[in-house]
Amino acid sequence: MLDQGPAAPVPESKNAAAVDQEIPWCEKHHQIVRDEIAAINTRREPDRRIDTDRLESCQLLDVTGLALSGGGIRSSALCLGVLQALNHHNLIGRIDYLSTVSGGGYIGTSLSATMTAARRFVFGETPVGGTVTAAEISDTPSVGHLRNYSNYLIPAGARDVLTGIAIVMRGLIANVGLTLPIVLLLAAVTVWSTPLRSCLTDANVFGVSLSDRKLCELHNFVSVDRWGFSTFGAAIALVMFLCSGLTYFASRSVRGSGPSVVLAYIGGIALLFGVACDFARFLKVQHFALTLAIAIIGAVLFFGWALKQSLASPGKRQEFRSHWPSVGATFLVLLAVIAFFEFQPFMLEQMFDVAESSAIGGPAAGVAIVWIKSLAAAAAPIGVFVTAFRQQFAELLKGNNASSQRGSLVLRIVAKAALWIAGLALPLVIWVAYLYLSYWGISNDLFERCSAALGTVSQRECLANAKSNTPSGNLAGRIQFDAGKGTLSAEITPKPAQPVAADTDQLTPTWHTPAWLEFLAEKAGQVVQVHLPSLFQGEASELAYSYSLPKVILYTFAGVLLFVVSFCLTPNANSLHRLYRDRLSKAFLFDPTRSADGSVARAEASLDQGRDFRALDRMKLTDLYAIPAEAARIPGLPATPKLHAPYQLINTALNIQGSDFANRRGRNADFFLFSALNVGSEATGYAPTGLLQDDEQSLDLATAMAISGAAASSNMGSNSIKALTPTLALLNVRLGYWLKNPRYVDERVRPQRRSTPLYFWSEISGRLYENSDSVYLTDGGHIENLGVYELLRRRCKVIIAVDAEADAPMNFGSLMTLQRYARIDLGVRIDLPWTPIRERTRVLMARNADKAGDPAAADEHDEMAQDHVHVAIGTIDYGGDEKGYLVYIKSRSMATRTIIFGITRAEATASRTRPRVTSSSPKSNLRSTARWVFTWPTASCPGTIRLRSAAASIRGWPASPRRATLPSTRCARRLVSPFPSDRPRASP
Questions:
Q1: What is the DSSP string of 74-142?
Q2: Would you say 845 and 888 are in contact if contact means Cβ atoms under 8 Å apart?
């Protein structure tokens, strides 16, 4: 029978972010666009300036944006060639926006910094009168600087390797300092609860025995025995409920969220725990008593929930994000945690069995603990390997590198298994460390009955007789059967077991504890006993007070001390971000007009390419659009800021895995940008760059560049590998950056969450939010790798996109992602005929594979014009009859090997040859290639296009004598569906 009843009323939305999303970005942030256009006008000629007063929101802007994609040093080198080609045609001045991601940001930020310092393009010369000169072919000093620092992570070789290893080790030790306090405190609780080996089989709760065995209680809990656990649980619950109510009315928080709900949950858990402990005493079960009690209570509660749900009206049966499902989930987590901790005594018992088997002889025991330790030892190197090649494993999981469906499935299964093993590696190591700390702290009271005073042999015989699982010896003899006489005779002689340990070993209650730990625990116990002698008095065994309690004191003191000291560790101080940032800055941020010693640097080409320029690693983002120094020195001259380079948008990813803002679309991230005027994202809001720089002293141009290229991190936006998140965080694979939330630059606004003190645990758990006091930023490619999205938001008329990511199968994954985001978020359709690039590249790859035996062999097809299909032009439909143009440049295979970069058109004209073989390794390419720049096609034929002619047909740039023929757009239209496939289909 169908449920009938009044429909539940729809509550008013209280989520400001959800309401704001209904307003288009270009309308809500129109002032940001106006300020950016005003900055761009300072670089334009007067007749080309845009009137900002008449600029309407969401208007198609007559501006040109250049997007440099991610792809590491490969992208940086390719994008350098694109910039040199634009400079060759004197078109750098026509670029208004420069949107960069990751590796494209290396050279893009270098362009902004050097043009701001030198007021010109320093990576190439412009031909005079159309004539190619030697100055254009040879390296400029700035290009020579990039070449020298192409190996930017270890530019000085072994010295930088050693310093890098030292910095990595420092970060690992810092992470140990953040993790070890939890392990020490858990071990202290375990030793306090089970101070003796014989207590491992006794059910207890935080040292209170559930079987009234006082021998195992280090403290006299008379009040608990008198009043019961339920009374104390109810008292704690009452206090928590009162605090919850006061917090709710004081903060006026939204119902169902905030600290009031957390306090209410704590009160409910305390009440449930108290009732379960009393019930466990009644059950009188020796093993897993508390787990069984809570499971029985849970069955009753879940049945009551089912009755409540059946009797409720249809309007009150909400299952999504309501309190009852959350309470049920919390109960299941509590049950799992209790079962796990009640399982630990079995593991510790097996550790004692393994140690004693090696000392007194007998069969080996403790199969489980041996298996766990072996698994941890095997998983650790797998974890390191998978961590080092995490990107390749992620590609395998997506199936991008398999040639067949069956091969793709097998590779995905293998990759997923390796990821899970790697993800379990460090948790297993931490678990084994906890077991050993607990094992060392528990005294073996078996040696009280078999003390060392009996002598070595007698002591071992006593121990063997006391252990039910270890025989005192074995039997030897023979059995004889006479078939003729029908008799059976046997001769049996008892034979004592041979001890495994040396006779000189004396087995004591702390025989299994390291000497250094025993020494420290003894000293700690002596200090505390002087001040608190009553702590060492009670009904427990003297052995527990003498040996186990000092270790509890030592573990507790060390854990609390480390926990307090760990609050002094700041989020960015010990991650790899600073190392990465400083090495990148040294390579790409420099003043080409000044040498390192401060003297004026020569602008002409020189064989002396080894000298350094003055570093610009302290250059601020606001310096890109600042008042010129010469104007500030002239009295009476209007001091207005001026832009000397394209207005740069540095794209990063805001990780908000715990937020509904991003995860309702499964992205785990939002678009976060740095620019000269504003910093922020749609999720956090935008703040003036100057104000944020004042609050965040370490924020500068080099920091923003490094954040944009922070590809390796525990949380990586839409590319996050959840199984590896704890492992990556614990191994300090953290290039990301914790930045003060732009939402709270105004100190009058209080943050809703505090992530900074517990930043490490926020990274491990993925509980990252847009409304916390600090936000975690990583590589912009973790959400969109082309850098085109922000240009679409600004509705640029012309966008030039350079796609230099690693895409050997030519699946155009970043382009597909951009099309999907543009359609879903902005209502923008991109129609781009990209299939000729893919099809021709695959033909070249197949042909080159046939020449693998002789890579240098000539081929009559190598100079064919269709081999240069690496550029496509498409249209951008902004809606309302407003259209823009997308010039898409794709790195691809050429000649006999994968050639991503070649030589300039000027060099090709001078030498009449193309490079035939170039290694795909960025390091070797930067050292061996004559010029690392993009090869612009010299022929204009169907399927190819030159940037110069494309620009002529779009915006009236200097026209080419020949008009380019664009590829068919029929195949591209098939992609503009509501949800385009990640794997593009070939056109018919």
A1: HHHHHHHHHHHHHHHTT-GGG--EEEEEHHHHHHHHHHHHHHHHHSS--SS-PPBTTB--HHHHSPPHH
A2: no
Q: What percent of the chain has pLDDT over 90?
A: 30
- Buried residues in 69-105 as b, exposed as e (16+ CB within 10 A): bbbbbbbbbbbbbbbbbbbbbebbebbbbbbbbbbbb
How far does CA 561 lie from the centroid of its chain?
A: 29
Query: What's the average model confidence in pLDDT over 267-281?
Result: 91
156-190 pLDDT, tens digit per residue, is 778 888 888 888 888 888 888 888 999 999 999 99
Q: Can you tell me the distance from the alpha carbon of 510 to that of 442, in angstroms, rounded to the nearest whole number?
A: 8
Cβ–Cβ < 8 Å for 149, 155: yes
- How confident is the model at residue 823, as a pLDDT? 93
- State the sign of the Cα–Cα–Cα–Cα dihedral 253, 257, 262, 264: positive
Cβ atoms < 10 Å from Cβ of 713: 28
Q: Are 701 and 117 in contact (CB under 8 A)?
A: no
Q: What is the pTM of this model?
A: 0.78
Residue type at position 817: T
For residue 644 the two structure tokens come to 């000397």
Name which residue leads in pLDDT, 667 or 671.
671
Res 574 pLDDT > 90: no
55: tokens are: 């600029």
3 state DSSP class of 284: coil
Q: Which residue has the higher pLDDT, 778 or 381?
A: 778
Question: Nearest-CA neighbor of 703 among 582, 600, 527, 882?
Answer: 582
Instruction: List the alpha helices (DSSP H) in 766-852.
Output: 789-793, 813-821, 835-850
The set of residues, in sequence order, having a beta carbon less than 8 Å from that of 99 and lying 6+ positions away, is: 65, 66, 67, 68, 648, 649, 651, 787, 788, 790, 791
Comparison of pLDDT for 662 and 839, the residue scoring more:
839
User: Can you read off the two tokens belonging to residue 260?
Assistant: 């009031």
- In three-state secondary structure terms, 22 is coil
**Spatial contact of 908 and 938, defined as CB atoms under 8 Å apart:** yes
- Rounded CA separation 451/158 (Å): 57
Average pLDDT over residues 677-686: 93
Q: What's the whole-number average pLDDT of the chain?
A: 75
Distance (Å, whole) CA 611 – CA 149 = 11
Most confident range, picked from 221-225, 228-232, 766-770, 952-956: 228-232
Q: Give the closest residue to 137 by CA, choosing from 910, 918, 914.
A: 910
pLDDT given at position 634: 62
Residue count of the chain: 988
